[in-house]
């Protein structure tokens, strides 16, 4: 259990760099994500060969995994769209709503009771978000896109939790990136019709950033993410990822001089977000330690 939490929080730290890459890469959000999933698919192809992981599973299962891959792909499109239309801080702060959507959607999808503690902790996170960011009216489009992104992020985690119980995490990631690359590739002509661009091929600098983003912040990150889901509930994983905005905001302050007006409310909001993560972690560990009777 402790190892799973360590893996989870290393993944969260790495995730903090995703927003930074979104700012550095000059491609629009659609092309950025397509190259991200395509490069990730190539990396995973060689990784599976290296570790001799068998890819022969029924076609129906491949399709089911690929469908979940489209959820994370759409999550990224909206996530980077939020950053492009606003800034890193807004994009990553909106991501915190993922745990809120998970607390509501997971019981509905998995047909189980709502957990009061999860709902309360989600509200604590929302309070923290409201204090960290005052939702400037000039960023309404970026905020709206960020909310949609967190919705897709929650759906991905809920459905991915089912997959990790049956397949190797690298294999899951492989077919998800394949599904994302094919699915978004099919939609790309329509996307580019409404959002035309002058250049389809990334520059040398952008290519370097995309290779780093795909290897460390996609393949490495989501393999660790899937591994943590084997022992840690989806809600707890998503709640822990609420620390990602904190890391991203700090990096944005250091590298892009964002958030010049950070004041006491930022630190109070940070406290509430971190408190929700710590409390849920403690609650989960205590539940695991309780003896189970009957079955």
Description:
The chain has helices at 2-15, 18-24, 29-50, 59-85, 88-95, 97-110, 116-132, 140-163, 169-194, 204-229, 234-240, 244-255, 264-289. It is mostly helical and 295 residues long. The chain starts with a helix and ends in a 6-residue tail after the last helix.
Short description:
With 295 residues, this protein is mainly α. It contains 13 helices and no strands.
Largest sheet: none
The global form is globular
> How many domain units?
1
Count of helical regions: 13
Per DSSP E runs of 2 or more residues, the count of β-strands stands at: 0
Average pLDDT figure? 84
Low-confidence stretches: 289-295
Report the radius of gyration as a whole number of Å: 19 Å
Run of helices and strands: HHHHHHHHHHHHH
Structural class: mainly alpha
Portion in beta strands: under 5%
Percentage of helical residues?
over 70%
Distance between the termini: 22 Å
Task: Detail the topology: elements first, then pairings.
Elements (H helix, E strand, L loop, with lengths): L1 H14 L2 H7 L4 H22 L8 H27 L2 H8 L1 H14 L5 H17 L7 H24 L5 H26 L9 H26 L4 H7 L3 H12 L8 H26 L6
Comma- or semicolon-separated keywords:
single chain; 295 residues; mainly alpha; 13 helices
């Amino acid at each position: 259990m402790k190892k799973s939490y360590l893996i989870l929080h290393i993944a969260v730290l790495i995730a903090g760099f995703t927003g930074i890459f979104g700012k550095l890469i000059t491609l629009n959000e659609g092309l950025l994500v397509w190259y991200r999933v395509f490069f990730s698919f190539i990396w995973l192809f060689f990784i599976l060969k290296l570790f001799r992981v068998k890819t022969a599973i029924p076609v129906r299962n491949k399709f089911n995994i690929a469908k979940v891959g489209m959820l994370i792909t759409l999550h990224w499109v909206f996530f980077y769209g939020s950053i492009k239309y606003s800034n890193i801080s807004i994009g990553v702060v909106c991501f915190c709503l993922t745990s809120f959507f998970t607390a509501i959607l997971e019981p509905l999808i998995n047909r189980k009771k709502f957990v009061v503690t999860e709902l309360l902790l989600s509200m604590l996170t929302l309070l923290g978000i409201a204090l960290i960011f005052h939702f400037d009216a000039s960023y309404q489009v970026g905020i709206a896109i960020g909310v949609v992104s967190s919705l897709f992020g929650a759906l991905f985690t809920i459905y991915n939790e089912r997959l990790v119980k049956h397949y190797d995490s690298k294999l899951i990631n492989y077919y998800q990136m394949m599904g994302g690359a094919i699915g978004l590739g099919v939609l790309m002509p329509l996307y580019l019709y409404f959002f035309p661009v002058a250049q389809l091929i990334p520059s040398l600098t952008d290519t370097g950033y995309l290779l780093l983003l795909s290897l460390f912040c996609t393949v490495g990150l989501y393999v660790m993410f899937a591994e943590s889901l084997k022992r840690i509930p989806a809600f707890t994983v998503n709640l822990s990822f609420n620390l990602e905005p904190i890391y991203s905001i700090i990096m944005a302050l250091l590298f892009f001089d964002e958030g010049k007006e950070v004041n006491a409310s930022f630190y109070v909001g940070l406290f509430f977000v971190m408190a929700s993560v710590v409390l849920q972690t403690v609650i989960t560990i205590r539940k695991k330690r309780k003896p189970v009777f009957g079955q």
